[in-house]
Amino acid sequence: MKLLCVLIKSLREQRRDLLSLLLTLSTAPFFVFVYWLFFGGGSTSYAVLVINQDRGAVIEGGTTWSAGDDLIGVLQETIAYENGQPMLRVKQVDDRAEAERRLKNRDAALLMIIPPDFTQALVATETPPGTVAFVGDLTNTYYTVASTLANGALTGFLDTVTHQDRPVQVVEEALGESSARTEFELYVPGLLILAVLMLVYQASMVVVREVEAGTLDRLRITRLSALDLLGGISVSQVIIGAAAVLLTFVTALALGFHSTGPVWVAVLVGAVTTFSAVGVGLIVTCFARTTYQAFMVSTFVLFLMMFFTGTFMPVPGGELFTLGGHTFRVYDVLPPTHAVVALNKVLTLGEGLGAIRFELGAVLALSVLYFAGGVWLFQRTHLRRE
């Protein structure tokens, strides 16, 4: 009987905090829905770029055959899931430099280069074996899957058109030093972003504690504006975040991590991203009146940024459009998405500041947007509350 009384009391108290109850009940169903929305009930299709240099060859009957074209058809049409959805999204390109840029931006998973003598190697036994190149970022999980599928399709195609020993070899060309990264080094960029994401917790709780302490009551009778209050808090949090990023990076270096690009550029990316995390934290405070609510809302936001930014797992589809050579996706509104790509370019692929101008600009623009939105919402939700 006493247990029943405690149960009823606990449920009544929980009902008073509807926001926390709603987040507890709806977070997992929300992510189920979002993944369904991205995948459409199907599975991932991996973007493969193909440079077809095959010149073809004259076969019996005087006709010209291009095995390269047939191989592309196999990649496009025969590799599919049980529901008919293609596993590979194949696109032919001509410019290798542009193709590698798309690989580095993770707009594509694999570049396959079919050599000029591809058909000749299949029809003439005295011709040396041809070489098909697989180019990609070997730290990208999507490259691993796409290259495995493409290699399987290539093997099946060769078995179909020729019965001799494999007349074509596959060579793997890694971008940057992606082939030399240890498993520990693969996780370091994501852990640097994790140091930044913790600021969502920190910033939101610092502001909410000011609300609980009655600072806003004193703020209403002074000339201190919301911008002054939140600006001061934000600068302190950015300093803490930059220190966390630097400490994480130094720890990684001490344990054997090495960067193939300029270290200062990687630290710059982390420092800029801290500003965006603080901005997100300010928005969180607008939906919380207690530190517990701030913790719950921040946890939801943290999950969102971990699952849909590429911090610890590949991001799903969600392509919207392509503009200026950049593919824009639904989750590009989350600043860590761009920070992850930028850090991978610098730390793994050896790129410099010039190669990450787009990502750095996107993080800066989103940071300003989130901070301005946080100040405006805070003004409306807290300072105007009776």
Give a quick precis of the structure:
This protein is of the alpha/beta class and 386 residues long. Helices cover 59% and strands 11% of the residues.
Strand count, sense and barrel status of the largest sheet are:
5 strands, mixed
Described by the principal axes of the CA atoms, the overall outline is elongated
Pattern of helices and strands: HHEEEHEHEHEHEHHHHHEEHH
Tell how many strands the DSSP assignment holds. Answer: 9
Strand content: 5-15%
Can you describe this structure?
It contains 13 helices and nine strands. The chain has 386 residues and is an alpha/beta fold. The protein has two domains: 46-180, 3-Layer(aba) Sandwich (abc type-2 transporter like fold), CATH 3.40.1710; 183-383, no CATH class. It has a five-stranded mixed beta sheet, with helices on both faces. A two-stranded antiparallel ribbon has the order 2-3. It is elongated, with a radius of gyration of 26 Å. The two termini are 42 Å apart.
What keywords describe this structure?
11% strand; abc type-2 transporter like fold; elongated; 386 residues; two-stranded antiparallel sheet; 9 strands; five-stranded mixed sheet; alpha/beta
What topology does this entry show?
Blueprint lengths: L1 H15 L1 H22 L6 E7 L4 E2 L5 E2 L1 H11 L10 E5 L3 H9 L5 E5 L3 H6 L6 E7 L4 H21 L6 E7 L8 H30 L2 H6 L5 H29 L8 H23 L5 H17 L11 E5 L2 E4 L5 H13 L9 H27 L3
Parallel strand pairs: 1-4, 1-5, 6-7
Antiparallel strand pairs: 2-3, 5-6, 8-9
